């Protein structure tokens, strides 16, 4: 009887297992048993740790991003890999620390592609798992192989490193060429008015901010004195392409509409969308609907605009019936800056707002405000809302999402923290390396060590402390969040421990 009973039990279990598997298989196109929700990375540009009401801002309301933070996991110790854009984006997409690649620095608008078509990337590994992949928004990782012809299909670019679709601006809103590029082709280009771009010299007869200041509707403070587009002085020289030039005040709406259309087109298959928003990077050009709304000048206004866009985007996911099947990851590429080269009232109208959220430094800085950024994971009905103090880095998304969709990921620098991202574990990294202008520092547990460097302690143009000192710096971030007390001398053994670890990690 016993054997029969056991056999019966085994039989029932097998049937049960079989049913489970086959029912799951029916729903999943690529046949694995794991869930494959859509994945959306919403990546803002220069948004600071303290720029959101859910992260403690009191002078500005960001209800739509707050809804993600309060309905998902809000990370308080999450890092961009770098205090500037290109390196952070490089790490996000490749899973490799940016300081390993010498060229991973702020790129000119005509720089060659930084990611090699042979490299592992997030969109590539998600493609392997059956995802459709797209980038909409800011690229800033270079295009082509040098000497780009903007009037032909531009490649290699996002489509050659894993994205099935791309709708991008090449670099930044303040850099030429000021045109949208769709799958390698400049949108709306009139072949009779070809585009030329140079970062070395002006094209004869073309007005610049220096030669024709009367044409400017926005004044430059430092840099940003080359070609003039829509009354705004830019970095780099551009000629032609008149019909293709973007309208700055429509950029947010434009990318949003592209993102919404993408969701509608791809809602039936698992998709990965990298929605790389341009706000609040300079030039800050809120649509008139938002101009003046924050009382903080354009910087505050474009944060409100971005928050609205995110609300609309989430609504689209909901209306299309895919919100509950979409994991949303929200973050920023580096910390905040007020005056980043234009006189746009960001400093004058700041009032009591603290974009750094009490941290020290800012964009370009090795101090915490350079790289510690808002980071939110949201998956309606799947992630239990909470706050996580785990140390995580954007470089970890690669290995984590690879594990999530069950494909091989690049694990050199990227750690699999998927259960932490899903709020199921509180465990983060033991340590992380951060970078600013190719200088690195180490966070390990509650401690942050910055090795001695040559250079200026303050970036005078932007008014931000760089974190550079000729002495070792050691901070206990738990007791001293704003990095006021350098404990390097008081805690020699702690310092030695971190220096040793740092040197080993850099090898
Ligand atoms: C700097 C620009 C700054 C901004 C930054 C890139 C000058 C003087 N400053 O070189 O305005 O464009 O590059 O920002 O040109 S990032 O967020 O894309 O890294
Ligand atoms: Ca940035």
From TrEMBL:
Keyword rRNA-binding in annotation: no
Domain Sulfatase N-terminal residue range list: 37-404
A family per Pfam: Sulfatase
Keyword Hydrolase appears in the UniProt entry: yes
Signal peptide as annotated in the record: none
Keywords attached to this entry: Hydrolase
Family: Belongs to the sulfatase family.
UniProt-recorded name of the protein: Arylsulfatase
